[in-house]
């Protein structure tokens, strides 16, 4: 198979050799130029697009090896083949080791097809090197462009992060301010309502009494929302300081006030835990209130406890989650505890859609959102519960199925 794209320059001080090789290689489809003078060959290399340079090693005007070195300085991609006799073989091998030449051929050239094969290999090697250089240069260019883009994107992300941090700081400050401003008038408002209801400020008819009770309910609900805002603010500022007490969990739960539909199912044998009584009470009430809010009043709410060994807990944490499940990161160093208590709060309510589960627990997110929603609240309950439990080094998990109900569980180390 001929390849007319191969361009060869032959240099030999013997014109007969140049003529012989030129005719043979041209018949093989190559473009061949010849020269008997090294200076002329150098000029031709400057003017012509040559793929392979074939030169005699021993010439009176200039040594072929010196010429090869000079050519490589100017055209490093050009492949050079030396023709040499046995007497100069060591010199040719030295040039080969120095990588100034591609290959060498011994004179006399008994089989011309050998020089054809070597020239074709040299040309192919040159093209591969050129293609590799093109690809390398293009890759470097792409890498440079990508580096610039990555740098610009990093700068943009850094600015976005700083803006977000500033926004978060402003949000926390706003929440802190609004909590303070709302709490200030709540004290006299609640106080006067109690005085009115107790008859200390005069008597009221039954209709007025009912109106005052409705107002008191609204004020209590507003007070709860303010407390949730304050809790979120303190947690964001890492000022949620807890006062832990060793507590028998079952006895403590029975002391809390729950709706009549709440049922206890205590199966845990060991229930002594270290908790902040006030803050964990908030968590329990948040979870029970949510269970009541999103389920029918006639259905029960179950609070169930049981113990988990460290091995069982690890297995539970490693179990692949079902699509409808969402668990938060477990922050406790479970290696330091042998036994754990899990408390589940289970309802038979509307459940949570699969695509909504990842959002549950984010501040201000509400499953039943919008101004026409049927439930009340600001979407802070579970967000606060997560932060309080994180301060307890506890796990909060949520498992739910639409129209079947939701189970929310927390895990505490047993002391």
Number of helices: 10
Q: Helix fraction?
A: 40-55%
Major sheet details? 6 strands, mixed
Molecular shape = rod-shaped
Distance between the termini: 86 Å
Secondary structure tally: strands = 13
Radius of gyration, in angstroms, nearest whole number: 43 Å
H/E element sequence: EHEHEHEHEHHEHEEHEHEEHEE
**How do the strands of the widest beta sheet line up side by side?**
7-9-11-13-12-10
Question: In terms of structural class, how would the helical and strand content be classed?
Answer: alpha/beta
Indicate the proportion of strand residues: 15-25%
Average pLDDT rating: 82
Give a verbal description of the structure.
- It is a single chain.
- The two termini are 86 Å apart.
- With 415 residues, the protein is of the alpha/beta class.
- Helices cover 49% and strands 18% of the residues.
- It has helices at residues 15-27, 38-47, 64-74, 89-97, 112-198, 206-236, 249-255, 277-293, 310-318, 381-391; strands at residues 7-11, 31-35, 52-56, 79-84, 103-106, 244-248, 262-266, 272-276, 301-309, 325-327, 339-346, 395-401, 405-413.
- 25% of the residues are buried.
- The chain is rod-shaped.
Q: In short, what is this structure?
A:
The protein is an alpha/beta fold.
Secondary structure topology:
Blueprint: E1 7-11, H1 15-27, E2 31-35, H2 38-47, E3 52-56, H3 64-74, E4 79-84, H4 89-97, E5 103-106, H5 112-198, H6 206-236, E6 244-248, H7 249-255, E7 262-266, E8 272-276, H8 277-293, E9 301-309, H9 310-318, E10 325-327, E11 339-346, H10 381-391, E12 395-401, E13 405-413
Parallel strand pairs: 1-2, 1-3, 3-4, 4-5, 7-9
Antiparallel strand pairs: 6-8, 9-11, 10-12, 11-13, 12-13
